[in-house]
Write a structure and sequence with these properties.
two-stranded antiparallel ribbon; 67% helix; 475 residues; 6-stranded antiparallel β-sheet; 7 helices; rod-shaped; alpha+beta; single chain
């Protein structure tokens, strides 16, 4: 009878499994789609990091170009000042030249008048007249010397003015040359300024393109995140329906098994009672001297052999002791002689938990030490190689696999691994989960992770550089 009940229960459970198989199949399909969406989200965040890095580099170049442009503009302003000063010097030189030329002309005219007067008075006769008018030779010599000195003085002054004019002309030429050179330098700097401004405008345009790409990637990331949320909600709904269907099928199977068991037990008891009744009647029949049956109207509660029976006809000694065995919900016999008491079980579980906690202490640091030796290795989307290249979830999966911890493949699935803890209680070796990204906590606010294709596997000093979705304790 027990075997029939177990078989019936298994049959009902198998039929229930067929009922929920369609739901489970759809649930598996959604989990595969969720994994693909999670990888796409990881790739989008990686692309955003690359774009942000490129934009940052471009902004640094723009800043450097701005600094160069400022230097060129300062140089242009300085050259403008120098050119203005040269123009002032040239104007002053022209004024000095005009004065020198005027003084030279005046002196020249005076000298000509004196020479003219001297010769107009008779040429050689003038010298004779000067001798006649002299009272003595001494006065004559004095007059002759004075005339000679005046002539020499006129000559020196004239030569001086000529030299001054030449010097002023040379200075004017030098100033004009300096001015031309300054203007040429100014034109060169103005060209540099124009070129720098063109480069800045071009790089600002490229920066705007990066901003647009980042905005588009952010929009994609939001769409992927929303899709993940929808897929998760659908999976949870299907999972709840599947569990409810399994529980309902199990309950119905148990009820059907219990009903069948009760019917068979009742039938067995009825057959046993009928058999006992027939045996009792045969034993209690009496006959008279003619061989006729004598009716026995006495209701005896005991038989000739002294065996007592209850109201159902079962012997008192065997009542409830025949095949009454308890079964669990899976149809297995419950052996009461080998059952662990709840207190012993809780004590054993507590001991195991304490032992597990103790063995896990310090292993997080071992995970960190192991993970950091791969810093500098490349980031490869979809990769799981710690040396040849891995993405964020592939890196964490491979690191923890070295310590016997099996993690799902995608960062989204890893958000449900292990035990949830707060970021304030985070310890080395914990998983730090972000939207579409995952890292290993090192302690002191630092993380080691496969960041992007530019930085590869690296250490970051700020674990909270993005919104933390969850912190998972694995070891």
């Amino acid at each position: 009878m027990k075997k029939r009940i177990v078989c019936l229960t298994l049959a009902l459970l198998m039929s229930a499994t067929q009922v929920v198989s369609v739901s489970a199949s759809r649930e598996d399909e959604l989990r595969e789609e969720q994994a693909i969406t999670s990888q796409q989200l990881d790739a989008t965040y990686s692309r955003m990091d690359e774009l942000a890095y490129a934009k940052s580099q471009l902004e640094n170049e723009i800043s450097e170009l701005d600094s160069n442009l400022v230097s060129v503009m300062v140089s242009i302003d300085t050259l403008k000042g120098d050119i203005d000063n040269k123009e002032v010097d040239i104007i002053k030189t022209k004024q000095d030249l005009a004065k020198a030329q005027k003084a030279r002309d005046k002196q020249y005219e005076s000298m000509k008048l004196r020479i003219q007067a001297l010769y107009e008075q008779g040429g050689d006769a003038a010298w004779f007249q000067m001798m006649l008018n002299s009272e003595d030779l001494s006065e004559l010599l004095t007059r002759a010397e004075n005339t000679q000195q005046m002539y020499e003085q006129d000559r020196r002054n004239l030569d001086k003015y000529v030299n001054t004019i030449n010097e002023v002309n040379n200075l004017k030429t030098q100033y004009e040359s300096d001015k031309a050179e300054l203007e040429e330098m100014k034109a060169s700097y103005e060209q540099q300024s124009y070129d720098l401004q063109c480069q800045i405008d071009q790089k600002k345009s490229e920066s705007a393109d990066y901003e647009n790409e980042i905005a588009y990637a952010q929009q994609q990331a939001t769409e992927y995140a929303n899709l993940l949320a929808e897929q998760t909600a659908e999976i949870q709904r299907l999972e709840a329906e599947r569990i409810a269907a399994e529980e309902e099928a199990r309950r119905q199977a148990e009820e059907e098994a219990a009903r069948q068991a009760a019917e068979e037990e009742a039938a067995a008891k009825a057959a046993e009672q009928e058999q006992d009744s027939e045996s009792e009647e045969e034993e209690n029949v009496e006959y008279d001297e003619n061989g006729n049956e004598i009716e026995n109207t006495d209701d005896e509660s005991e038989s000739d052999d002294g065996v007592e029976y209850d109201e159902n006809g079962d012997s008192v000694d065997n009542a409830g002791a025949s095949d009454d065995v308890e079964y669990d919900e899976y149809g297995n016999v419950i052996d009461s002689d080998n059952t662990v008491s709840p207190d012993d079980y809780e004590s054993e579980q507590s001991s195991d938990s304490d032992s597990s906690s103790s063995s896990g202490s310090g292993s997080g640091s071992s995970v960190v030490d192991f993970a950091t030796q791969f810093v500098g290795n490349p980031y490869v989307w979809g990769g799981t190689s710690l040396t040849g290249g891995a993405d964020c979830s592939g890196f964490t999966q491979s690191v923890y696999a070295n310590f016997g911890v099996s993690l799902p493949r995608t960062s989204y699935e890893q958000q449900n691994a292990g035990t949830e803890v707060s970021y304030a209680d985070a310890q080395p070796g914990d998983l730090i989960c972000y939207g579409g990204h995952v890292a290993i906590y090192m302690g002191n606010g630092r993380i080691v992770h496969a960041s992007n294709s530019v930085d590869g596997i690296k250490i970051s000093d700020n674990a909270a550089y993005r919104t933390i979705v969850s912190v998972r304790r694995l070891v």
